[in-house]
Specification:
The chain folds into 2 domains: 260 residues, Aspartate Aminotransferase, domain 2 (3-Layer(aba) Sandwich); 133 residues, Aspartate Aminotransferase, domain 1, CATH 3.90.1150.10. It contains 15 helices and 12 strands. The longest helix is centred in the C-terminal third of the chain and has 20 residues. The protein is globular and about 75 Å long. The structure holds ligand LCS. Ligand LCS binds next to helix 4 and helix 5. The site of ligand LCS has 19 residues, from helix 4 and helix 5.
């Protein structure tokens, strides 16, 4: 069934993909009352009434559910919701963000080719492009994509994919998505973006001409810190290719339970995201005026080198802030050790404020020279601003920064 169209993101987040269902009550025909929440079908396999039904589900996948690695109603409700939020034709939910990224790349590069990618990316995404794919004969050219000429210059006749994050993890660099999509279309190249940091509340890349959108659901989409999952959004053709090929065969499929937990999280995404943005703007401003802070990167600050692009391209600047302390590595360590409310933890998009030190955690596998070249320096501290009262977060950061070198 096609997704209904709604005017606003909150209505979409709550209602898209969901249908009132009575089928679960078939066993109790004498009772009324329809479950308000989407049901969870926590089963691995499905049974059929007869051999013909079973055989036809193998031939025509849309006619039935066979096995949860091939599809499951709870997964499908989530997929419809995410497709609606991103404005895509179809979506797939996956076992992790990396499951989404690897399944999408394996599909787009199924007959080889070359990739042009941004030079700062989430580390495991960098690892796929820098270590895993070259072993299969697929090379990546990493460029500073804040300047689109660098992308254009890196394109080769065999380039199949332009791979982007915007904002990037952890430096919050942006790419002009509309202009980049136009370049890619001229060369018949598939554009893929990891939209985890922005969420569909802030930017919908498909509306700007990007072909495929990826998510780590683990972060803002679920928002509850209880799920590891991912998603791929694109046109029906691409999604069917991923589903029937790399996703099914390599098996990075979401569990019905994680799909269901995500269905509990997404309805509050627009509300949560606007509070993340509001808190982050206040905290970025606080950090920027603090004497112990060397610099702050936040797309909402005028000091962000691409603030004008952020205003044009994003609807809300997100909950992620990156900063560098004047005292370098030891100041970063002192800060994270002194924090009482904010948690020292990787991941992001949680309701709690999380603080991490990329050089020793998320980006520790990226070679030092690459980290230095791309700006992931030793003194960098990354904040995922949560939904606590902003005064409490600021008070915690203020006591953590006290007496650090200014
Ligand atoms: N994309 C981005 C932008 C991410 O930040 C992450 C994980 C992933 C993809 C992978 O998603 P996963 O497979 O974990 O669901 N980012 C992390 C981070 O910054 N700290 O810990 C994980």
């Amino acid at each position: 069934m096609e997704n209904k169209k709604y005017k606003g993101k909150s209505t979409e987040a709550i209602h898209a993909g969901e249908q009132k269902t009575e089928s679960i009550l078939d066993e109790f025909p004498e009772k009324t009352g329809i479950p308000l929440l989407p049901p969870i079908y926590q089963n691995s396999t499905f049974q059929f009434n007869n051999a013909e039904e079973c055989a036809s589900a193998f031939v025509d996948e849309d006619s039935g559910y066979v096995y949860t690695r091939w599809g499951n109603p709870t997964q499908e409700i989530l997929e419809k919701k995410i497709a609606a939020l991103e404005g895509g034709e179809a979506a797939l939910a996956t076992a992790s963000g990396m499951g989404a990224i690897s399944s999408a790349l394996l599909t787009a590069l199924s007959d080889g080719g070359h990739v042009v990618a941004m030079e700062t990316l989430y580390s495991a995404s960098f690892n796929i492009l820098n270590d895993e794919l070259p072993r299969m004969g697929v090379e990546t050219t990493f460029v500073d994509a804040t300047n689109l000429t660098n992308i254009e210059n890196a394109i080769r006749p065999e380039t199949k994919v332009i791979y982007l994050e915007s904002p990037t993890n952890p430096l919050l660099k942006l790419v002009d998505l509309k202009a980049c999509a136009e370049i890619a279309k001229k060369h018949n190249i598939t554009t893929i973006i990891d939209n985890t940091f922005a969420t569909p509340c802030s930017q919908q890349p498909i509306s700007l001409g990007i072909d495929v959108v990826l998510h780590s659901i683990t972060k803002y989409l679920s928002g509850n810190g209880a799920v590891v999952a991912g998603a791929i959004v694109g046109d029906k053709d691409f999604i069917v290719r991923v589903k029937q090929g790399s996703l099914r065969n390599f098996g990075a499929v979401i569990s019905p339970f994680n799909a269901w937990l995500t269905l509990l999280g997404i309805p509050t995404l627009p509300l949560r995201f606007s509070r993340h943005c509001e808190n982050a703007m206040k905290i970025a401003t606080f950090l920027e005026t603090h004497p112990s802070v060397e610099w702050v990167r936040y797309p909402g600050l005028e000091s962000h080198p691409q603030h004008e692009l952020a205003k044009r391209q994003m609807n809300g600047f997100g909950g992620m802030i990156t900063s560098s302390l004047k005292g370098g590595l030891s100041a970063g360590e002192t800060l994270v050790n002194k924090l009482q409310l904010c948690s020292l933890a990787v991941s992001l998009g949680d309701v709690r404020t999380l603080v991490c030190h990329p050089a020793s955690t998320t980006h520790s596998h990226v070679p030092t020279e690459v980290r230095q070249k791309t700006g992931v320096t030793d003194g960098l501290v990354r904040f995922s601003i949560g939904l606590e009262d902003v005064e409490d977060i600021i008070a915690d950061l203020d006591q953590g920064l006290e007496n650090l070198p200014a």
